[in-house]
Amino acid sequence: MGKLFENIDGQLRTFIEAQRLFFVTTAPSGNGGHVNLSPKGHDSLRVLDDHTLAYLDFVGSGVETIAHLRDNGRIVLMVCAFEGSPRIVRVHGRGEAVEPSDTRFVELRARFSPEDRGTVRSIIVIHAQRISDSCGFGVPLYEYRGEREQLREWCEKKGPEKIHTYQMEKNARSVDGLPGLSWVTKD
Predict the structure, then answer these.
(1) Which residue from 21, 175, 167 is spatially nearest to 99, judged by alpha carbons?
(2) Is the pLDDT confidence value at 187 over 60?
(3) DSSP-derived 3-state class of residue 54
(4) How far is Cα 176 from Cα 67, in angstroms, rounded to an integer?
(5) Are 35 and 62 in contact (CB under 8 A)?
(6) What domains are there in the chain, each with its CATH number?
């Protein structure tokens, strides 16, 4: 029942951008290390063109996605319909973390809502290599009730200086010891 797509057309784009929750999976190179699966939300996903997506990567206690992308670039993004018709879309590709020091950051950041109050640490760009969908019949229906405000409130309370220190402590290395944020690790 699944289908492969050559690109992200208008209908697929509409579906992807309508989902309030998506998931990202990465893994380090080789047979060892930890596979990482992260849920994402907060209206943070955009389709940039027919083969490129981007999402806002918020400050967090781990840095697995960034570390894995620096290691090998492999990433899978998945969106599921939790409301309406059942559908799952997966985008396999190569990803990169665009940090605030990168000259592309400002242009990419302009594609999203300006309200982040210091919560964005990078923008993850995904260059699609395989785009597919499946039925989603096994995905339950959920009712959307709103976004959580804790991240924004936590960042506002900490302030930029303490967020900077937090990232130096928590985002320098992955759980497997791979380099995280480039401005912290300088690798």
Answers:
(1) 167
(2) no
(3) strand
(4) 9
(5) no
(6) 3-185 (2.30.110.10)
